[in-house]
Amino acid sequence: MSQQQPAIWQDFFRLLVTAAANADLYNQQHPQVTRLCGKALELIKSLFGSKNQIDILLIDQNIVLDETPLSSNLHTVRFVEALRVHGIEHLSLQRAISQQELLQLIVLLTKRQDLSQQPKSSTSLRFGSIDMSKAGQTSTAVGATPLPSESDLVQYERERLSDICTGVGKKRSLSLNGLKEIVAHFLQALDQELNPLLAIFPLHQQDQYSFTHSTNVCLLTLAHARRLGLSGPLLHDIGIAALLHDIGKLFLPVDIINKPGKPNEEEWQIIRLHPVRGAEYLVGTPGVPQLAVVTAYEHHMKYDLTGYPGVRKDWQQHLGSHMVTIADIFDALRTKRAYREAMGANRVYEMLTDLSGSELHPELTASFLQMINQATVPATAPETT
């Protein structure tokens, strides 16, 4: 493998994973998916050189090309993890591979793919498994510590948040150190180019909604805050505030929170109490950032100060609260609920745009939507020679 090829391979896998994220966000026929697939096809054609076939081995969380391991990043690990779910450990690509066949590979990387369907090989794209008893030496030779995939990372922190909040529900102290570690891990992942959109997918377990939603809101808010240039203690405080914005729901009746349908008026009045309940709990908890208290109280206020709880007309909302509110609404609309389906990305974009200036902070909404758009468009591929 030449010195330039590893970078081209990294870009190839990045394009495939990003195309899959777009297919999840929109659909397989979306022009963005077609464009990214076309770029990936151009790259793979350039990598064949004098060869007619390229074999890709997936060993542990690593990609091995020509018996040489490729350096891991979040995109390559995501590629490996997505294919191993289907039992795929070996890919064989022929020089004549078409864009349609490459799209078939992209579909296998999507999070909405039906796992009951067996991947089908085609003329120029073949899938298989490898005999790990024979590949053991190669696996050892890889030797690199695998990075966690996006799905593993977010799921781990989601479960940790669930444990922390369950403890609060049982009258145990809030684990502030645990919350700080979740935020630190998310920031570390963002430093390694984690795409925040890859953490978002339709939910199937209603009882896990609160924890899934809170980690999604945290990740989206942190990505937004970094885009705005925020750093240091304020960035960490915003992450903790995002994780805890809905903590007041822990103090509401469980049957209302988990009701499989829209709440009635009486139940809705109880639900509207959760910002106050959350702020009351957090203000009495030592070590919790003041911003977390403020955000818990303000996250259902609107930019025009309607919403709840009601406040005086000269109330000044914190910008952190505005950011969490935007991410909160985005994730809620993109998530499947018991009483409605998840909304498509285009519809969510239109709704947030319509709410900008009335219910949502206009400048922050614009920058958030720009971030979402850019998260689905990779950087320009490097020149090949």
UniProtKB/TrEMBL annotation:
Signal peptide: none annotated. InterPro entries: HD/PDEase_dom, HD_GYP_dom. CDD domains: HDc. This is HD-GYP domain-containing protein. The lineage of its organism: Bacteria, Pseudomonadati, Thermodesulfobacteriota, Desulfuromonadia, Desulfuromonadales. Gene3D superfamilies: Hypothetical protein af1432. It comes from Syntrophotalea acetylenivorans. Residues 188-384 form the HD-GYP domain. Pfam families: HD_5. SUPFAM superfamilies: HD-domain/PDEase-like.
